[in-house]
């Protein structure tokens, strides 16, 4: 089963990590469901390692387990930055399996998806308190950023003094409003991008190197 | 014969706490307003238990002073572990952070004390719906059970 393989993978990766010479910084990709976290994680991984992190989907809570891509070496202006990227499940305070029933899922699948989602979010919150060295916070720039979840998460990240980069994703869409995001979190730098189309990735990599190097 | 327990609909959570005790009626919406002083003596997990026990009973919980970021993070985590199909779908939470400048005293800033003084409203996700929110008003629709 996928879950078991994942678990095995991550255990062996954890033990591998114990023997690594220098620990790369662990960068968590956080944000609400459907913001494009996995699309971004995949793009970063493909650009610098050649393979992907996990499946993307328009159905919320596609990512239900944090997935790690280790030793991603990003080169910027002659400097090399090595990071582990952790793609996390979209954070929320509620999950109702009934919402998945609209996506052509039967009840068993929907219940399973919601259970996995809740476990994944719990795990991601735990990681954020214990195990992350920096955060890339991804927002869908076509949606309202003034949500309680965003406010709480940014507050949690700030209280831990973690370096944080806010990405305003989906700038390829006509409704994209980057300014609204910049206004919502004026204490942070907001970088616009389209993870799907690969727009403005150069700046994203420059900022990753600057913030997490 | 043991005395009949007054807490008939208390669910599985043992509630020896005076706040989450008592009758939550089927006909109305119960609101628990918890003062900052009441919260101050509690550990993080006790606060979270107090909130979630109330919310899982169908109540709206209002905190005079809110939670610290760390407690909010734990609240999300514990909420997630308690969600179960057809029983508990999670929480809705809204806060009023007071304006940064007026919120934190000079001394608080100096001591690195984070001021957690923010009015916080928490309710069951399936019964509470935020209609409108801005800096001055939270408008919430609470449905009956
Ligand atoms: N137009 C557009 N769509 C995007 C962009 N990035 C992601 N998407 C789409 O948004 C949807 C969600 O993307 P994901 O990468 O799965 O989002 P996520 O944040 O990982 O979602 P969860 O894992 O469910 O929390 C998919 O349909 C993506 O194709 C973008 O830059 N532009
Ligand atoms: Mg994802």
Would you kindly provide a written description of the structure presented here, covering whatever features stand out?
The complex is a heterodimer of chains A (213) and B (145). Chain A is built from seven helices and six strands. Chain A is globular. Chain A has 213 residues and is of the alpha/beta class. Chain A has one domain (26-212): 3-Layer(aba) Sandwich (Rossmann fold), CATH 3.40.50. A six-stranded mixed sheet of chain A has the order 2-3-1-4-5-6, with helices on both faces. Chain B has five helices and six strands; from the N terminus they run E-H-H-E-H-E-H-H-E-E-E. The two termini of chain B are 32 Å apart. The A-B interface holds A 91-97, 111, 114-115, 118-119, 121-122, 125-126, 128-129, 146, 148, 151-152, 155-156, 158-160 and B 68-70, 72-74, 76-81, 83, 85, 89-95, 97, 114, 125-126, 133.
Quick rundown:
The complex is a heterodimer of chains A (about 210) and B (about 140). Chain A is an alpha/beta fold and about 210 residues long. In chain A, about 40% of the residues lie in helices and about 20% in strands.
Average pLDDT metric of chain B: 76
Number of domains of chain A: 1
Give the CATH class of chain A.
Alpha Beta
User: Mind telling me the CATH class of chain B?
Assistant: Alpha Beta
Sequence of strands across the biggest β-sheet of chain A: 2-3-1-4-5-6
| Helix-residue proportion of chain A | 40-55%
Descriptive tags:
heterodimer; A: 213 residues; alpha/beta; Rossmann fold; 6-stranded mixed β-sheet; globular; B: 145 residues; alpha+beta; Methyltransferase, Cobalt-precorrin-4 Transmethylase, Domain 2; two-stranded antiparallel ribbon; 5 helices; 6 strands; 23% strand; binds magnesium ion; GTP-binding protein (chain A); GTP-bd (chain A)
């Amino acid at each position: 089963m996928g879950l078991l393989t994942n678990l095995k993978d991550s255990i062996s990766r954890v033990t591998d990590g114990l023997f690594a010479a220098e620990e790369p910084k662990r960068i968590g990709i956080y944000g609400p469901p459907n913001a494009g976290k996995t699309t971004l994680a995949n793009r970063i991984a493909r650009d610098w390692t050649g393979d992907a992190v996990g499946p993307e989907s328009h159905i919320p809570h596609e990512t239900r387990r944090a997935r790690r891509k280790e030793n991603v070496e990003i080169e910027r202006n002659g400097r090399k930055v090595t990071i582990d990227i952790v793609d996390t499940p979209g954070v929320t305070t509620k999950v109702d399996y009934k919402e998945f029933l609209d996506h052509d899922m039967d009840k068993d699948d929907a219940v399973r998806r919601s259970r996995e989602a809740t476990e994944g979010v719990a795990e991601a919150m735990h990681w954020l308190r214990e195990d992350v060295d920096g955060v890339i916070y991804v927002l869908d720039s076509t949606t309202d950023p003034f949500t309680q979840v965003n406010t709480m998460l940014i507050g949690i990240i700030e209280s831990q003094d973690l370096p944080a980069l806010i990405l305003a994703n989906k700038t390829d869409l006509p409704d994209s409003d980057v300014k609204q995001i910049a206004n919502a979190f004026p204490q942070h730098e907001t970088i616009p991008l389209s993870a799907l189309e690969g727009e403005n990735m150069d700046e994203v990599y420059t900022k990753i190197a600057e913030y997490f190097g | 014969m043991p005395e009949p327990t007054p807490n008939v609909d208390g669910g599985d959570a043992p509630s020896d706490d005076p706040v989450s005790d008592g009758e939550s009626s089927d006909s109305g919406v119960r609101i628990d307003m918890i003062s900052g002083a009441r919260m101050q003596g509690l550990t993080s997990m006790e606060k979270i238990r107090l909130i979630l026990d109330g919310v899982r009973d169908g109540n709206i919980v209002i905190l005079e002073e809110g939670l610290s970021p760390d407690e909010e993070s734990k609240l999300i985590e514990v909420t997630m572990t308690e969600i179960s199909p057809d029983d508990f779908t999670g929480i809705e939470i809204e806060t009023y952070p007071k304006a940064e400048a007026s919120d934190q005293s000079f001394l608080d800033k100096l001591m690195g004390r984070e001021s957690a003084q923010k009015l916080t409203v928490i309710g069951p996700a399936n019964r509470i719906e935020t209609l409108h929110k801005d800096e001055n008003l939270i408008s919430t629709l609470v449905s009956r059970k």
